[in-house]
Fold this sequence. Notes:
- By secondary structure, the chain is an alpha/beta fold.
- Helices cover about 45% and strands about 15% of the residues.
- The protein has helices at about 5-10, 15-25, 30-45, 50-55, 70-85, 100-115, 130-135, 160-175, 190-205, 220-230, 245-260, 275-280, 290-305; strands spanning about 60-65, 90-95, 120, 140-145, 155-160, 180-185, 215, 240, 265-270, 285-290, 315-320, 320-325.
- The chain has a 6-stranded parallel β-sheet. It has a 6-stranded mixed β-sheet with strand order 7-6-8-9-10-12, sandwiched between helices.
- The longest helix is centred in the first third of the chain and has 16 residues, at about 70-85.
- It is elongated and about 85 Å long.
Amino acid sequence: MAATIRDIRDRTGLSLATISKYLNGGNVLPRNRELIEEAIEALHYEVNELARGLVTNRTKTIGVLVYDIQCLFVGNMLHYLGQELHRNGYGMLICDSCNNEEIERANLQFLLSRKVDGILVFAVSLTGGFLAPAKQAGVPVVLIDRAFRGEEVDCVEVDNRTAVFRATQKLIENRHRKIALIASDVEYTGMERRKGYEDALRTSGIQVPKGYRICGKHSFELGYQGMKHLLGMDNPPTAVILSNYDTTLGGILAVNESGKKCPEDISIIGFDDLLMSKVIRPKLWIVSQPMREMAEKAVEMLMGHVCRSEEGAPRRISFAAGIREGSSIRTL
């Protein structure tokens, strides 16, 4: 049978009020603290966080809304978030929105009903209206990987526009002028990355056919079908930027199936320095997001609100993405 607070009382001789005060984070005399901690260890007492939450209005749980738990980027971010939350003494409750705004709204209500202390959000929605119930409940929220249009919410992201501007410039430096892009036109990150591509072409005075811009929703299928289309054009591009991990995976498979070679026939820059980029040949040039640093900053921002140590206007933190050198670009 699990030990109870009364077992601690019997072992220490202290009052239930003193023991309860200690368990709920209050200050007790040093000698009393020693007695309680010795009893907890000897009895293998485990704190009932749900019961504690009724007293402290804290559950030591953070909700995490993700747009698609199958996305490898999301999976890696959850790994780093979990590590950082654990370091702060918190657990996490994950809800998959399945790229569906209705499910996202329902998941938010679910997390609020579980009395989470804060919520980290990888949003499906482009606007933040669905977060109104969290604001009304006083539950702090931090966005990860994207911002909302015209709305102020704490946010940790990568400067996607600059990242793809630099990737496009790298191809231009290698004398490529026929540069294509495969990117989402319905997700915040994809739209920002396309802006960077357009900025770089405009800055260098380069015009490309409209068909070089392959748009849809970030996915393996978009990368695969998009690359097949580009390779089959009468006037195919000499280089392609694949603007997220899933499209990179699909695009590489399409190149392999086509019988064409990278970089001899097509130069490629991919996105996210994850498992695939470490095992395929040739080694890809990759836009690399600082995922661990993003996770640490997101948790830091959220903990600041949960602990009431930070107030004021919402902050937007943008990290610079790196570009890891590979051998998938040919100089023309």
